[in-house]
Design goal:
The chain is mainly α. The chain has 1 helix and no strands. It has one helix spanning about 25-40. The chain is globular. The model is unreliable at about 1-5 (pLDDT under 50).
């Protein structure tokens, strides 16, 4: 089965989940926001 991957947005792009730029995310924030987008969830920001 092929592996599914989500490409990271441009570093200067706004995140579609939270009010931060993509380059302001740490590894946990990037994983959280990517999963939130991929699963079409509505949940709050966890960015520090």
């Amino acid at each position: 089965m092929p592996e599914s991957r989500t490409a990271a947005p441009d570093d200067n792009a706004s995140c579609t989940v939270c009010p931060h730029l993509w380059n302001e995310h740490d590894s946990l924030g990037a994983r959280y926001c990517t999963a939130t987008t991929a699963s079409a969830l509505t949940r709050g920001c966890i960015c520090p």
